[in-house]
Amino acid sequence: MDAEKLFLDYAGRYDRSNGKIELKIVHTLAVADVMDRLTEALQLSGRQRRLAHICAVFHDIGRFEQVRRYDTFLDHLSVDHAELGCEVLEQEKLLRELPEMEQRMVLTAIRNHNRFQIEEGLEGETLLLCKLIRDADKCDIFRVFACEDMVDTMGETEEQVAQETVTDEVYDSIFQHRCVKKEVRRTGLDKWVSFLAFFFDLYFKESIKLLAENRYYRKPFDRVVFTDPETERRVKEILQEIEDYITSELMEK
What we know:
Layout: H1 3-11, H2 19-41, H3 46-58, H4 62-70, H5 81-92, H6 100-112, H7 124-147, H8 150-153, H9 158-161, H10 168-175, H11 188-196, H12 205-214, H13 219-223, H14 229-251
Helix pairs in contact: 2-3, 2-7, 3-6, 3-7, 4-5, 5-6, 6-7, 7-12, 12-14
């Protein structure tokens, strides 16, 4: 199954001059690359690596219709892009070359890749695929966050975020090592900090090691000069807490 060809043929129906469309094509291929590196490092079986790669290639296929219909990546203002992606995969029969059981596994992993938590009751290879795609996606989200256009990805400019604050609930979540629910975010800077909280939801040490090497997670914060001294202090404390967490996780056997 040539998943990349199927994906690119489908994505080719959309306007690549739209920055959001091109961003998601680049992101998808990057997630597939991260996934291959992750599954190789974990020494998974050939079958597991193949299925994980397919999950990576198709995990965000719902984004294209989301952008066409709503011109946004914000699910709460439009549609759950993972659910829409599963609908696209089924309608287009893009998984038809896989046995039915493997199709269900891939769809379940994609359906769970953007949830706050993986649904209960999953086990075995299906649960493994869910964990793998969540990690691989988060790893490349940090690259997108650091390198792509902030308006396309986040909705705010860096200049706007420089004027903002980290609200107490989001700030506290970092030091409690908790992920941040979308509904508690009040500012653009809250969204930035909520990405850092992804570290607490990574399943594999290899994922943390990859992020520690490229340090994308720091780059947007290092570029911005925050106008409020208290905000600048909080951001420094948050980054230090993340780096302490990375060190402690990588030191564990």
